[in-house]
From TrEMBL:
Listed GO biological process terms: dATP catabolic process; dGTP catabolic process; dTTP catabolic process; dUTP catabolic process; response to stress; TTP catabolic process; UTP catabolic process
Enzyme class, broadest EC rank: hydrolase
InterPro entries recorded: MazG-like_dom, NTP-PPase_MazG-like_C, NTP-PPase_MazG-like_N, NTP_PyrPHydrolase_MazG
Reactions the enzyme catalyzes: ATP + H2O = AMP + diphosphate + H(+)
Domain NTP pyrophosphohydrolase MazG-like: residue ranges: 35-108, 170-233
Entries under Gene3D superfamilies matching the protein: MazG-like
Top-level taxonomic group: Bacteria
PANTHER family noted in UniProt: NUCLEOSIDE TRIPHOSPHATE PYROPHOSPHOHYDROLASE
Record-listed E.C. numbers: 3.6.1.8
Alphabetical keyword list: Hydrolase
Organism per entry: Thermodesulfatator autotrophicus
Name of this protein: Nucleoside triphosphate pyrophosphohydrolase
Amino acid sequence: MKEDKFDELGPLFVKLVEIVARLRGPGGCPWDQKQTPETLKKYVLEEAYEVFEAIGEEPPLAVCEEIGDLLFLLIFIAYLYEEKGEFELAHVLKLCAEKMIRRHPHVFGENALSNPEEVVAQWQKIKEKEAKDKGKKSSVLGDLPKALPALQRAFRLGERASRVGFDWEKPEELFPKLEEEIREIKEAIAQKDEKSLKEEIGDLLFTVANLSRKLGINPEEALRHSNEKFETRFRSMESHFKEKGKRLKEVSLKEMDAVWEELKK
């Protein structure tokens, strides 16, 4: 980034903060004035997912807009804490900058590293030291947010466990595990054991997430693609019968299967 670009960033960032202050201040927006960090939590996830969806699928300008929405929301939440005197936005920026410098000694210090694997190992050691300094129990698994989509969290848990060698060597080694989980699901169904069935379904999904990881595929993205594919085909099938004056409830499964197979081709 050119030096003159840095000069532009300061005033633009301040302008966003001023907009938040205006919205929250006298004569501002009634909706914005009612918000708290708790009421805005759900929007953080929504905006983050919109950024996620835009990347790689939308034009760069759309990605730019979605990043702006998320950035503004984060500034808004930080401002709410500043209003209550709990911390200031400047403190957020200061802590973030200090953390990034501390976790990149190979860039900002003299500890040269030559590959991404070394960087990840060093990052983990630094995080462990930070946790210890704060009196927290450190773990290789870290503190993955429980609000993450469960499939993505399973992927990341397996990824982190693999850093210490707790992993299958080859993807093929998971096939017996998949067969075992499917067998246990069948047993739970036969025994009409709802609690066990729920647990075994979870174990199967966890195994699938790890198989995906071993194959270099993010299971969350793979499932998202399959969801979209299913939705597109189903809507097309729906339109097909609608054009014939039929509702899906009036169509047999055999007829739907025939159209579905055509759509797959």
